[in-house]
Amino acid sequence: MKSISQEQAMVTDAEFARRFREGWGAPSLTVQERVAFDRDVWRRVELVQRQRWVPALVGVAVVALMVVMVWVGRLRPGRSADWLSSLYEAEVAAETEVAVAETADLAGWRMGNLAADDVAGDVSSEYGLLAQWVIVARNEQNEGEWLP
Amino acid sequence: MHSTALAESASVLTLSREDAFVELLRTERERAIRVAYHLVGGDRAAAEDVAQEAFAKAFKSLASFRGHAKLSTWFLSIVIHEAQSQRRRQGVRERWARWVAGGVSPNRAEASSAGVEPGDPALRRRLAAALATLSAGQRQVFSLVHLEGLTVEEASAVLGRSPGTLKSHLHRALVRLRAELYDVREVLP
After folding, report:
1. Which residue segments constitute the domains of chain B, with CATH numbers given?
2. Which residues of B touch A7 (CB under 8 A)?
């Protein structure tokens, strides 16, 4: 960078900025230019307004496409039902397994704590029912039945 | 928030979106073009393009404006953001053009200011070239404070940076410009 001479340094920042501003100039609009500018702005605003509907339209189109796909699938007996029900069954099976495991853990933990606290003889009906439900759930799962 | 900012925001919030926008267009049109003109390197057509795009974006966002800042401050930040995007796009276009032309760089300053503005085109080209050597942050704060007359605090609200950072940018910008323009008599006799 070039060094600043003593004379240049004597010009204050404000004075330097003023001279810069004057030399630089700035566009000023005539009345006609102002009208044309405003017209272009409103044109862009209209464009922006129209573009607001684009995401909504895309969303509607996607939903319509999905509805059509399902509808077309239903027209072919056995086909759509197969993949839909297999998906559903797999999901239910996974959820059931997790639910049984969690319930068994909870019941075991609570009953274990109660026993440790030497209140095993005073197990409330709530915990008793819970334990029974877990046993029923396990049996049903073993027999290949779904939990309600 | 300053009391005038509150008054301005409150008055804007009571208007319909269209009325508020008409008011914004009327009061901020000239300044938007001026600020864009500083930031895009003295290209008037590009400056008007930036200002128009900023107004269109402001219209879109005006419904969500909740008066957290002065409307003019909020709008100025949109203009600055748009000018920055425009410079980025311009840079990509120039690199692309250079690549297509086999390494020949288009003379942007020459093309942008030819016969469009009053005054001395040669001087403006020198000033534009000097401004172009500043970083984006330095250029923005120099433009707002020294060319638009905002205080450092107002510029801080527009740019979303601390006053201390802006003062530092401003100091470096002035040092850089003085050095770049050391031989320009109109600026530094």
Report:
1. 1-115 (1.10.1740.10), 118-189 (1.10.10.10)
2. 188
